[in-house]
Amino acid sequence: MDASDIEKDLSKIHYTEDQILAKLRELAGRIERDYEGKDLLMVGVLRGAVMVMADLARSFGRHVEMDWMAISSYGSGTKSSGVVRIQKDLDTDITNRHVLIVEDIIDTGLTLSWLVSNLESRKPASLELCTAFVKPDAAKMAVPVKYVGLELPDEFVVGYGLDYAEKYRNLRCVATLAPHVYS
Ligand code: XMP
Ligand code: MG
């Protein structure tokens, strides 16, 4: 779906598909260099990270394994609470593996902090984080994120995997919704 297909629903486009892809290619280049000579397992967080994972992985000129976790964080409305539940666990044993968590967006970082301590307890050889987008609150996070993509304002956004009530995930750009969509 292009922005032009749902023009009336959007109040601001933050990043176009081309801008997102350019940033992900840059991150993929860094990741490729950092993991040279090592097997890499990328762990995507469902469902938002599907697009990020697809574009990152395809930017590599090397092999990479992919696995997925589905977690839900409960919170009021559009803010997460840090209370997390695993809905689908990994199929892969990550003991002694080089693991890179792939996220769509980090807001408070509560979801990710929980995920990091959960995966750390499985004793991977290494564990790093990659996110396509960050919001300003992420700066206060306890967990360092090695590969950070594009910055967003403290607004609820949709597109490129991010949803509002399971819609807009297939929008190519990342945008803020117009107020009428919520009413
Ligand atoms: P925290 O606050 O735990 O939140 O870092 C991370 C998770 O919350 C979701 N999230 C969003 N989803 N538009 C969305 O569609 C947004 O603007 C947004 N901000 C946070 C997202 O699932 C992420 O994994
Ligand atoms: Mg999500």
UniProtKB/TrEMBL annotation:
SUPFAM superfamilies: PRTase-like (SSF53271). One of its GO terms (cellular component) is cytosol. Residues 19-164 form the Phosphoribosyltransferase domain. Its EC number is 2.4.2.8. Pfam families: Pribosyltran. Its main location: cytoplasm. The keyword Cytoplasm applies. Its cofactor is Mg(2+). GO terms for biological process: GMP salvage; guanine salvage; hypoxanthine metabolic process; IMP salvage; purine ribonucleoside salvage. Gene3D superfamilies: 3.40.50.2020. It catalyses: GMP + diphosphate = guanine + 5-phospho-alpha-D-ribose 1-diphosphate; IMP + diphosphate = hypoxanthine + 5-phospho-alpha-D-ribose 1-diphosphate. It comes from the Bacteria. Belongs to the purine/pyrimidine phosphoribosyltransferase family. This is Hypoxanthine phosphoribosyltransferase.
